[in-house]
Amino acid sequence: MARILAWCRRRELPAAGWPLVALAFSGSVFAALGAALPSSAAADVWVYALTSLCCAVLGVGLVLLGSRMPGWLPQTLVVVAVVVIAYFSAAVPDDAGALLPTFEYAALAAYCAYFFGRAQTRCHVAFMSVCLLAALLVGDRPAPVTVWFIVTTTIAAIAEVQGHLVSQLRRQARHDHLTGLLNRGGFEQEAPRLLALAARSSRPVAAVVIDLDGFKRINDDLGHAAGDRVLIDLAASWRDRVRDGDLLARYGGDEFVLLLPDTTAVEAQALLDRLRDGHAARWSAGIAEWDGSSRLSDLLWHADRALYQAKESRGRSGLQAVDEDAAAAG
Predict the structure, then answer these.
(1) Which among 176, 211, 213, 254 is annotated as catalytic?
(2) Active site residue 246
(3) Run of H or E residues at 6
(4) pLDDT tens digits along 229-252
(5) Exposed / middle / buried, residue 262 (Cβ in 10 Å: 0-12, 13-18, 19+)
(6) For the segment 262-285, what is each residue's pLDDT rounded down to a tens digit?
(7) Are 287 and 279 in contact (CB under 8 A)?
(8) What is the per-residue pLDDT for 149?
(9) Is residue 330 in a domain?
(10) Is the residue at 179 inside a domain?
(11) What is the DSSP letter of 94?
């Protein structure tokens, strides 16, 4: 068993892959239970057994795919699973046994809420609701509307509550709790998309690294509450002055980064002048213009080097410098 688990860990499935594997194997178990029910007809036993085998093979196939699993596959498998579950709910002769497959709907709703967007999840839940009602009516189950209402409201509640919690957790993971700006992790998730878009359209991008001047002295002399207030007010002022498409993040401590699409280094300097007008705090900045191909880390390194040059040139006096080598690097 330990060797099997170690082999599975090496497959490097995407985040959405392992829950699909678990759902596939649980579907195999449910189908096997359907075959084992005393009320199952001989013909039904073969259908259940074949479905159980197919689910098991699907689970193994997903593991074998590993990192090669295409992005469209999870959505497709959810739709197929909903139809298969509805079929078994209608086909099982025993009324109590017919409800057994519907437990998989709750698991699918939780899966959708975690890995898909809210709109996509609601579409899947609506599809589950339609398929369940059809299965109950085709199977001639007692009180089909009541059963449908109870099951549908349950899976909808699971999807909505989990979707809300997941969106909150993801926001907290991506945003700085003090300023509300993107944190380092959130910035490093969004920035590559912006650079990829700029590369396709051959548009300029400027990176800015900002460091507050004398911030340690504020904390030492006035206390950390005063330092926090400066960060909050400064972030609010900057947020009002940057464009909607600009990425502004608190990178750590008193350091901030800006990624400015459709902006040259010269235009970035003009933007920084506007930022200075909004708050009395003093800060230094380094600017680097993207060369169109280098990595985000290299771009930020050039901006950080320009920041160092700004601080060294005339002391800590609210300067900004441009790394002239950044645009030419490649």
Answers:
(1) 254
(2) no
(3) helix 2-9
(4) 999 999 999 999 999 899 999 998
(5) middle
(6) 999 889 998 898 888 878 888 889
(7) no
(8) 93
(9) no
(10) no
(11) S
